[in-house]
Structures are given as C-alpha cells and as structure tokens.
Design goal:
Blueprint lengths: L6 H14 L3 H5 L3 H4 L9 H18 L7 H5 L6 H12 L8 H12 L7 H11 L3 H14 L17 H4 L12 H8 L3 E8 L3 E3 L9 E4 L4 H12 L2 E4 L5 E4 L2 E12 L6 E2 L1 H13 L1
Parallel strand pairs: 1-6
Antiparallel strand pairs: 1-2, 1-3, 2-7, 4-6, 5-6
Helix pairs in contact: 6-9, 7-9
Bound molecules: iron/sulfur cluster.
Iron/sulfur cluster binds next to helix 7 and helix 10.
Length: about 290
C-alpha cells in the first residue's frame, strides 16, 4: 500500500484491511469484488490486483510462507527492487537500503549537491555501513526525505546543513522545474473532457466502432462527475486519474483524462494502446 502513497493516507486503509484480511490465506481466497471496498480510493488499482495475485501465489506456491530474500521477493507480482528491499529490511532485518526517489534525492543532495545521479559507488558506500541497522536507516532517511529534505528542502531547520554540499552550493546543482505556462492555460481553457477509458492499460475502449476515439463529455468535468457519468449511463465503476494534458478535438481544446474500469462489464469496441497513441498524437499536432 505504501508504494507511491504516504503513510498518513494509507494508515486507515491498512487498519481496516488487516481486520478484514488478517492472514495471507484469507486474502488469497478473496475475489476482486470483495477486496475492492477495502481498497477503493487508495489509487493504483494495478497494485491492488497484484496484492491479490501475490497472496494467491504465496499460498499456492510457497506454502503460505512469505518470501524473505530480495531475489525471491522480486519474483512476486508488483514487487520491484525498491519494495523488495524495503520488505527485506523492515520485515526481516536484511542489510538492504530501499533506494527510491526520496532517498536518492536526499543522498544526491548531501553528497553530490543535487547534480548527477547516485552512482553504484555511493550505493556501495552505504551498503558497507548498514550492518544490523538497515531498517532504522531506511526509516530515518524516508522520514527525513518526507519532512525536511523535501522537494523544497527546509535547510534552515536541518542539522546536517554544514556538511551538506547542496546547502554549501546554494542548491545551484538542482535544476529548477520547468513550468510551461502554455500547458496550464490550455488546461484552464479546455471546454470539453476527453476520457481515455481502459482496463489495466491492456484494453482501451472506444466511443466509436471503426477507429479509436475517446469519450467526449461537455465541459471541464471533475473526477467525481466523470465517475458519476459512467456509473449512471453504463453501470461502470471507475478510478479516474487527474487530467494530464490537452488535445484538440473538432477545433476545441479538450482536457485529457485516463480512467480505469474497476467493476462492471463494458460493451464498447476495444482497441490496442497504439491506436490511442495515434489518436492523441494526431490531435495534438492540429
Ligand atoms: S541541508 Fe537541506 S538539502 Fe542538505 S540534507 Fe538538509 S534539508 Fe537536505
């Protein structure tokens, strides 16, 4: 649950989830429809599906015993190098650092002034001092990256600043985020909403039969309004992502939104991802 999601957001879900699914065996026999009420709203629905698949695999193929090593953990659905290392360190005390964006940012600023990337040499230096304290160091660096050394670091309050290269160099190494006012204003002036409807990014549903087209709704709709539209008209339960750009359709700007079907049986024509990319590419150029 903590992949891409903050603890403060997860904690309520986690507590309710453990009450309903106290063991991996309980989770392994649960259907998606029964799982969803305990997960809906947390986002990243592929992650939820992977949790069910992993529980099933642990019970069926590993006798109900959760994998312990990074290599074994990485073979489970939805568990990549970061999650595998976090589990190995927190759950089993393995000497592994969970390198993620936050941790790389903190270490990258402290040692490299925010320029370049954390190299395997820097990683190895940390690995050599981890010993039995990997879990504490992971937790400390995660908290540090979430509270002080955030995207806008609070260096004035940081007790490490005298030794920090980023602070000494005034943060010059880190490129400022490029703001493209054109995109922001294009979004603000969109008069319609183009919904790209999909199922796990494997099936893309089209509003017309012969060639791919997104679902075009009048106005710049909120995510809640998009969900309501598809629920009322088609009986579908959706997860809707925040808008991520604009395209031009029939000469007017349309806000582009991805929506994933969580429940329900769609009866729309299905197209591959390449058709969606062709459509958005062609409409962006106009
Ligand atoms: S001084 Fe600033 S950049 Fe350096 S570690 Fe502290 S918060 Fe991060």
């Amino acid at each position: 649950m903590l992949q891409q999601t903050q603890v403060s957001r997860v904690i309520g879900y986690y507590t309710r989830f453990l009450e309903r699914f106290p063991t991996v065996e309980t989770l392994a026999v649960t259907k998606w429809e029964d799982f969803l009420p305990y997960y809906a709203g947390l986002g990243y629905y592929a992650r939820g599906r992977n949790m069910l698949r992993t529980a099933h695999e642990i019970v069926q193929e590993h006798g109900g015993v959760f994998s312990r090593t990074v290599a074994e953990l990485e073979r489970l659905p939805g568990i990549g190098p970061y999650t595998a290392r976090a589990i190995a360190s927190f759950a089993y005390g393995a000497p592994e650092l969970a390198w993620d964006t936050n941790l790389r940012r903190v270490i990258g600023r402290f040692f490299l002034g925010g320029k370049g990337t954390v190299t395997p040499t820097v990683e190895a230096r940390f690995a050599s001092v981890l010993g039995r304290h990997a879990a504490e160091l992971n937790a400390a660096l995660m908290d540090f990256g979430a509270s002080l050394c955030t995207a806008r670091p609070k260096c004035a309050a940081c007790s490490l600043r005298k030794a920090c290269r980023y602070f000494r160099e005034g943060g010059r190494g880190e490129q400022k985020a490029i703001v493209r006012p054109g995109n922001v204003s294009a979004m603000a002036h969109a008069e319609q909403t183009a919904v790209i409807l999909h199922e796990n990014h494997t099936h893309y549903f089209s509003s017309r039969a012969r060639s791919y087209a997104p679902f075009l709704l009048p106005g710049r709709l909120t995510r809640a309004a998009i969900k309501e539209h598809f629920s009322t008209l088609y009986g579908l339960v959706l997860a809707v992502r925040p808008p991520h750009g604009t395209i031009r359709i029939r000469g007017r700007a349309a806000m582009l939104v991805h929506a994933q079907i969580l429940l329900g049986t769609p009866s729309f024509p299905v197209f591959p991802k390449s058709a969606v990319l062709r459509y958005t590419g062609a409409n962006k150029r106009r």
